[in-house]
Amino acid sequence: MSLETINFKLLKFRPGDRVLDLGCGEGRHAISSYLLADVDVIGLDLSIQDLRTAQRRLDEFKQNGGNQPAKSCHYVCASGLQLPFADSSFDKVICAEVLEHIPDYQAVLSEIRRVLKPGGIFAASVPRWFPEWICWRLSDDYHEVEGGHVRIFTASELKLAIEQQHMRRYARHWAHSLHVPYWWLRCLFWDSGENARLVRKYHQLLVWDLMQQPAITRLLDRLLNPIMGKSIVMYFVNER
Prior knowledge:
Blueprint: E1 18-22, H1 28-36, E2 40-45, H2 48-65, E3 72-77, E4 90-96, H3 105-115, E5 116-127, H4 129-138, H5 141-144, H6 155-163, E6 167-175, H7 180-188, H8 197-212, H9 215-228, E7 231-238
Parallel strand pairs: 1-2, 1-4, 2-3, 4-5
Antiparallel strand pairs: 5-7, 6-7
Helix pairs in contact: 4-7, 7-8
């Protein structure tokens, strides 16, 4: 079980869709896409270590689920600034919690538009402005570490940047409100890390919530997401 930011119902998977998870990390959305539908998924990332972890996790799911000839999932090590794919080669593109790490994020958006088919769907998520702003104020190390966040997006800024690529937004939501206090605590006690008692206890709560998914925390998360969801998630259709 993984923590998913994207709402897959809004991606409208169809059998045979080609799906790109750009900046897939350890594979959470790539693997979920593979498990949910008969689609062909490519997870792309710059980190060889993360891709190895993603492949190991995928292999575990395949061993438990048997052969799935109607679908596939592969991983590629490459940069989002120069995607190694032909024009109009994907039906769906996911880019979750990635753009805030990239100085020239507009170039990545241009590459996404290039490889996305006309009428294809693009799902993007970034940290929400207010929770992220608090993290930056509590700890410089939070965003100054190698590979860390280089900007704080406003929702309107991200929407405009993607719309300039001739994509139209059709849905929006927020996610992971219960994770906001963890990151505030983590930034407040940055030097101590998980050794800080409050950080450790709250992390244990989040793991319990992910594994058990009790109704009370699901309800609380839904109620709080519009107010303080950690991530903003938008869905666009390519009108090119």
